């Protein structure tokens, strides 16, 4: 071999080496859809041939997206090139609607699919003419897409039984992201950069990110998106902006994602130049009807409106002496001819009412049960105040049986350390969905109440306040992706556990090595409780800084809005701590089913993790551990910090096992989180100590500064406004 040939061979090998092991760091932009190559020879043998020849029934845009996905999946996971065939009997992978399946296979799949939610799918394998075929079938093409994503998920999580059989159906109809995105691209409570909707360059410019967004959502079963902030801007309903929305809707449509918009109740005035927005005024009614007709001409499959009315300064029907039901029905009638819905939020409270904020939504909505049109859904936050680290169930879940409902959770971490803290919300979602609504009467859980198959409600759904933004990794913190992922998976199937979803996400996003994945799973599973402990243990709530909500500020007191004061919620004094919501206090307990009412009303039976939510408790009260309340609270704060540090250590030990960029990013965020956890502990304990006047028990790391220091901290440019 001449030197030249030898040299070229070496060079070739070196280059090959580089191309096989790209040094490219994982910037998170591919989310859980990385399809990293599978190296296990056993798995390769079993699965790589699944898609060697595939057939797809849909010659539609959705069909094309499914084709792309099949290519991406097999190519990425196995490095194989799959071929499309037009002979269904030749195919190893058959992706077909029930209608278009060869006759002889129909009965088999119909047995699984009949009578269930149409977006569901059935994956099965059978041997035909001596070769194994995999069939993905559904009544809808959306179901086929969900089935494909499930196939790849199952392969990666190695959850495929030998003879693959998976039937899956969404347990709720509407699975929607709520973007709190403003038209100027800022995001209310957005911690991952700016809004991904670039209204300025729409409708002409459609960067890839729009389709990537739709694909990511489809991969986890989300089927709707509200593009705009609940604190709405009527401009979005103008003709000019509707054309921009139309362009987005077109990108999302093949992925089964409908577009919804927030409607400002004053739109007839600000946009329509009418003198009033009175829902009883016929001109106003006509304005909304005309607006709906215009919207549906532009976007025929428009989902509907989301409305925040008469809350936090947003206008609403009460301004005109009308009720929430009258306001909601006005819009509902307008969209009804086109199959649209109105999602009307129950997140209402006003500082002008001098009763407990936690009771106001129930007070206003419960009497209206049965008065809403059948295309209205009442959107209820998981708890009665506002997405706090831990809240009891919102009492409206136990009362609005004659109305359609949506549950609303927050994916963005407004009260969980923004996108700097690793807090996996799966455990919070699970706690919420599995809560029994009226244990005194039946076993119905929140999850059941959102499942049309288990209630008389014709419509129901689950909304999550989105955590996406222009950061390359979409969510700011890598683990924020897990919250988005988990939201979608649980909205599809409220019975999935947070633990299994965490595992799915980890193996698709970080590592398939079981030992590594298990450690990360443990970090995730403990993370929410850690945050509760270092922020608001034992039922404390709403003690963060004013306006931006960054960091602790239990001392906040505002004259204009008592209900924005932290002191309103914790009521610390020389005797004790906590909000008395018992029958002797605000009587919020009375809004619950008898079982909860009794449980919560008694200081001795109230679960300790909600004690200070429902009771004003003496500093010296003996807790179950034998500690006094004061000591227990100190230990809780300390344990949040300690346990977080343990997680941090575990993460740091993974350096050699995971992608370097992922490792460094999370390591750095952990450093911030640790600092802030200590800050929360120290600021809260020094503050509450000024009331309890008790010494810190042993084992508590003493606060680094005095109370004045914590009070003096000012933050002008933190995100979250
Ligand atoms: C609170 C947020 C506020 C939202 C409000 C809402 O602090 O920015 O506008 O909820 O849900 O959590 O409307």
Structure description:
Strand 7, helix 6 and strand 8 form a beta-alpha-beta unit. The chain has three domains: 128 residues, Chitobiase/beta-hexosaminidase domain 2-like (Chitobiase, domain 2, 2-Layer Sandwich); 336 residues, Alpha-Beta Barrel (TIM Barrel); 144 residues, Alpha-glucuronidase, C-terminal domain (Alpha-d-glucuronidase, C-terminal Domain, Alpha-Beta Complex), CATH 3.90.1330.10. Helix 14 crosses helix 15 and helix 20 runs antiparallel to helix 21. The chain is of the alpha/beta class and 721 residues long. The protein is built from 22 helices and 16 strands. An eight-stranded parallel barrel has the order 7-8-9-10-11-12-13-14. A six-stranded mixed sheet has the order 2-1-3-5-4-6, with helices on both faces. The chain has a two-stranded antiparallel sheet with strand order 15-16. The N terminus is likely disordered. Bound molecules: beta-D-glucopyranuronic acid. The site of beta-D-glucopyranuronic acid has 10 residues, from loops.
Sheet having the most strands:
8 strands, parallel, barrel
Q: Which structural class fits the helix and strand makeup?
A: alpha/beta
Give helix % range.
Answer: 25-40%
Please give the count of helices.
22
Overall CATH architecture of the largest domain: Alpha-Beta Barrel
The number of distinct structural domains comes to 3
The CATH C-level name of the largest domain is Alpha Beta
Distance between the termini: 69 Å
How large a portion of the residues is in β-strands, by DSSP E? 5-15%
If you average the pLDDT, what whole number results?
94
The hetero molecules present are:
beta-D-glucopyranuronic acid
The value of Rg in angstroms is: 27 Å
Q: Spatial order of the strands in the main sheet?
A: 7-8-9-10-11-12-13-14
CATH superfamily annotation of the largest domain: Glycosidases
